[in-house]
Amino acid sequence: MGHIARATVDSMAYQSRDLLGLMQEEAGLQLSALKVDGGAAANNALLQFQADLLHVPVHRPVVAETTALGAAYLAGLAVGYWEGPEDVTKNWALDRAFTPAMDPARRERLYRGWKKAASRALDWEEH
């Protein structure tokens, strides 16, 4: 993976940690696992790094492109093809689980570096 591609992967993972950390704090809930989908879910390096940064398992489904699938499920629910949401959720199948493996001290050191870089970038452009 090239430097730019790796930087993009890292940035996505760090931004997800920022957002999920805020969501957990606001909701008063603790994340036990993260289910992912979409094009980026095909990137094993991203998902492993995400699991490491969040310190929770990351689960990728067999069907990772779920936008159209979700629309089909909603249509099926609307016309009575599915009896209820439980019928839809039973169709979800795990392709791969990414388990956190990073040393906690390294994880926090990397995240502190991200926060420092992000704060310095806020005033990058002169007005």
How would the blueprint of this fold be written?
Layout lengths: L2 H25 L6 E2 L8 H11 L3 E4 L5 H12 L6 H5 L4 E5 L5 H18 L6
Parallel strand pairs: 1-2
Antiparallel strand pairs: 2-3
Helix pairs in contact: 1-2
Trace the largest sheet across and list its strands.
1-2-3
User: Could you list the spans in which at least 5 consecutive residues all have pLDDT below 50?
Assistant: none
How would the global form be characterised?
elongated
Classify the secondary structure makeup into a structural class.
Answer: mainly alpha
Can you give the helix content as a percent range? 55-70%
Query: What is the CATH topology descriptor?
Result: Nucleotidyltransferase, domain 5
Corresponding CATH superfamily: ATPase, nucleotide binding domain
Largest sheet: 3 strands, mixed
Number of domains as seen in the coordinates: 1
In sequence order, what are the helices and strands, one letter per element?
A: HEHEHHEH
CATH architecture title: 2-Layer Sandwich
Under CATH at level 1, the class stands as Alpha Beta
Distance between the termini: 35 Å
> Helix segment count?
5
Strand content: 5-15%
> Please, what is the average pLDDT?
90
What is the rounded Rg? Answer: 18 Å
Strands, total number: 3
